[in-house]
């Protein structure tokens, strides 16, 4: 294995902390192993293109990299990693804790192929608390950033968290307006009038009172409704004893609202603290991770994450899972329970304790209630794994049935569908939607503004869109398995022509259209409308069974392409309605347009004005006035 590790001789490593040691690619990597430092740090493996393919940390860099030189640690993917390895860089740190932080940063920066990455980690909702503001507010976000804000979550159901926020806004009078609106208010808004905001934008508000309302709202978001209700009950009784009946009534209403909407939890622990419980289930390189959220001793939610094609040991998976899960400003509980013992558990606990501002525990329980929680997380991970596997098998069966029914070359893993939208040839647009393994891949959606076709020529527009798309697809080696057009024989013929002209033979092509039916006055009922699938070289279309799963998939893709095209077309129409003929005149920007309309009172009067009158407007030169006059005469107002 050592003979396969090639690179140039290396310079003697400098012992400065944070110094990067580059190894060039044309000499023996084996010769460098003795020069590597024995201190803690991070190592990066790169391939012949200079792309970082793996990042790792070590308490002893020399010993760890030597382990790879001897063939790795038994993981199957290591032989593929080493086959691509042409260069190594190490970064020395003072402590293993610094190495852990640096490793996390580099993985996020380079996203190496052979490192574990959580799937769909950014698709969940969080509640952001803008703590850096004098008057903080609560808002929903999908992104966690290090901006000084506090983040609560994640919440897998956007509907549930929106309902919770609506309850908070009814019960706790916190501001909801943006910073721009807040700074420019001159009097309290409607939210203040209906007692949903204290009005700090224009009124004197006690900061302690505002912070008190905020703390109560956070208790509800963190699932500590019982603790909050007890606190408000005490305050209500104190207010009633002091004869402050209006305050007591307000607190009573808050308690009633929270009591009615509080979720009934199925699991509770006697300890009553905040915990994140991690579970793991795997079958070879396919791994499912599960996190249970326990807040105030109650199980309030869970999230599942998938890892694919990884043969890391369980300790490595859990370690990377933790690193990525607590990125950004995510809430750190009092205790974290994991299913395996981690070698760097103390270091990770120390880092998270510094973030939280108090000591936390990172434990692998062996008995008692905490072990039962971990076992519950493990069982949830197993169940999630089975359900996802079942879903994948269902998708495979659907695509295989589609292949058989339409006699396709292959089961169409990736399908691209096109549609055209226009109004009598005006503002013509095309859309492309992409479904990957039966699910929409919105990052690949594309919109096309028709450039070369005039009038209502749907075939010409389809030809332009498909040509533009597949010329680029050929250059980028990014062809789908199936091309689908919304339409019948005509649209299908256009698609076949485009693929033939571009020399693309490996892509299947179909057209999907509804069967048009006419009412027969002598028939007892109108015939149902069926979907017809048109295939190249076949005279008659294929009619799939009305309830077939494959047909449902095609309809779903076609409807999505239609929706995407219509939305783009409507946006262009709305933009055109708001535009002004003055926008098309070079030299007339927003300020001069506004000055013209303000001076003359309307666009109609601007059209009727002579060049001399136009030149009297501030900023309009005689030459520009003549230009405006000529343009408006050449483009009269529509009747």
Q: What is shown here, in short?
A:
The protein is of the alpha+beta class and 639 residues long. Helix content is 41%, strand content 18%.
Features:
GIY-YIG endonuclease, alpha+beta, Nucleotidyltransferase, domain 5, five-stranded mixed sheet, 639 residues
Question: Can you describe what's shown?
Answer:
This protein has 639 residues and is an alpha+beta fold. Among the domains are: 2-110, GIY-YIG endonuclease (3-Layer(aba) Sandwich), CATH 3.40.1440; 275-386, 2-Layer Sandwich (Nucleotidyltransferase, domain 5), CATH 3.30.420; 414-575, UvrC, RNAse H endonuclease domain (Nucleotidyltransferase, domain 5, 2-Layer Sandwich); 581-634, DNA polymerase, domain 1 (Orthogonal Bundle). The chain is 41% helix and 18% strand. The protein has helices spanning 61-69, 77-84, 96-110, 158-171, 179-184, 190-193, 207-221, 225-241, 245-261, 314-325, 345-356, 368-406, 458-476, 489-502, 549-578, 590-600, 603-608, 611-614, 622-634, and strands spanning 20-22, 41-46, 52-58, 87-92, 125-129, 138-141, 150-155, 275-283, 286-295, 298-307, 335-337, 361-363, 414-423, 426-436, 439-440, 446-449, 482-486, 508-514, 531-534. The strands form four sheets. Strands 13, 14, 15, 16, 17, 18 and 19 form a seven-stranded mixed beta sheet that branches. Strands 10-9-8-11-12 form a five-stranded mixed beta sheet. A hairpin with a 5-residue loop joins strand 2 (41-46) and strand 3 (52-58). The longest helix is centred in the middle third of the chain and has 39 residues, at 368-406. It is globular, with a radius of gyration of 32 Å. The chain starts with 19 loop residues before the first strand and ends in a 5-residue tail after the last helix. The model is unreliable at 1-26, 261-270 and 517-529 (pLDDT under 50).
């Amino acid at each position: 294995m050592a003979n396969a590790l090639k690179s140039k001789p290396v310079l003697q490593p400098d012992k400065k902390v944070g110094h990067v040691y580059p190894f060039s690619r044309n000499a023996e990597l084996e010769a460098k192993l003795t020069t590597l430092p024995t201190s803690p740090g991070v190592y990066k493996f790169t391939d012949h293109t200079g792309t970082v393919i793996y990042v790792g940390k070590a308490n002893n860099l020399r010993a760890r990299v030597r382990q790879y030189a001897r063939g790795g640690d038994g993981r199957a993917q290591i032989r593929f990693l080493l086959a691509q390895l042409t260069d190594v860089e190490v970064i020395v740190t003072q402590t293993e804790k610094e190495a852990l932080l640096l490793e996390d940063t580099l993985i996020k920066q380079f996203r190496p192929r052979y490192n574990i990455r959580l799937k769909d980690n950014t698709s969940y909702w969080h509640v952001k608390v803008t703590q850096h503001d004098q008057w903080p507010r609560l808002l929903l976000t999908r992104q966690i950033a290090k901006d000084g804000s506090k983040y609560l979550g994640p919440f897998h159901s956007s509907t549930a968290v929106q309902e919770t926020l609506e309850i908070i806004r009814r019960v706790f009078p916190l501001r909801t307006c943006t910073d721009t609106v807040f700074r420019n208010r001159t009097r309290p808004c409607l939210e203040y009038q209906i007692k949903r905001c204290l009005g700090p934008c224009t009124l004197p508000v006690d900061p302690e009172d505002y912070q008190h309302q905020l703390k109560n709202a956070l208790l509800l978001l963190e699932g500590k409704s019982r603790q909050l209700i007890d606190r408000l009950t005490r305050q209500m009784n104190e207010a009633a004893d002091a004869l402050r009946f209006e305050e007591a009534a307000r607190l009573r209403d808050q308690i009633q609202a929270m009591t009615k909407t509080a979720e009934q939890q199925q699991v509770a622990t006697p300890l009553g603290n905040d915990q994140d419980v991690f579970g793991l289930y795997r079958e070879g390189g396919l791994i499912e991770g599960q996190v249970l959220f326990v807040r105030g001793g109650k199980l309030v939610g869970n999230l599942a994450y998938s890892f694919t094609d990884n043969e890391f040991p369980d300790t490595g998976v859990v370690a990377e899972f933790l690193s990525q899960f607590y990125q950004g400003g995510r809430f750190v509980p009092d205790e974290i329970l994991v299913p395996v013992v981690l070698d760097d558990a103390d270091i990770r606990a120390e880092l998270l304790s510094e973030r939280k501002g108090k000591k936390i525990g990172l434990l692998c329980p062996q008995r008692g209630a905490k072990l039962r929680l971990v076992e519950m997380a493990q069982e949830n991970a197993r169940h999630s794994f089975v359900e996802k596997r079942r879903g994948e098998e269902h998708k495979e069966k659907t695509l295989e049935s589609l292949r058989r029914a339409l006699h396709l070359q292959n089961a169409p893993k990736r399908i691209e569908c096109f549609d055209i939208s226009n109004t009598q040839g005006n503002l013509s647009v095309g859309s492309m939607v992409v479904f990957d393994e039966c699910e929409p891949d919105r990052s690949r959606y594309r919109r096309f503004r028709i450039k070369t076709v005039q009038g209502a020529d749907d075939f010409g527009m389809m030809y332009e869109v498909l040509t533009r798309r597949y010329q680029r697809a050929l250059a980028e080696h990014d062809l789908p398995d199936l091309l689908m057009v919304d339409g019948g024989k005509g649209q299908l013929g256009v698609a076949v022509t485009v693929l033939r002209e571009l020399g693309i033979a490996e892509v299947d092509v179909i057209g999907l259209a509804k069967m048009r039916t006419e009412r027969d006055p002598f028939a007892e009922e109108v015939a149902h409308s069926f979907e017809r699938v048109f295939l190249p070289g076949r005279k008659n279309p294929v009619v799939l069974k009305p309830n077939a799963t494959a047909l449902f998939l095609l309809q779903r893709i076609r409807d999505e392409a239609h929706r995407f095209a219509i939305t783009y077309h409507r946006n262009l129409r709305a933009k055109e309605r708001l535009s002004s003929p003055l926008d098309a005149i070079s030299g007339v920007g927003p300020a001069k347009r506004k000055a013209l309309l303000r001076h003359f009172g309307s666009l109609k009067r601007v059209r009727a004005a002579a060049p001399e009158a136009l030149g009297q407007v501030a900023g309009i030169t005689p030459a520009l006035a003549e230009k405006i006059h000529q343009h408006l005469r050449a483009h009269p107002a529509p009747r």
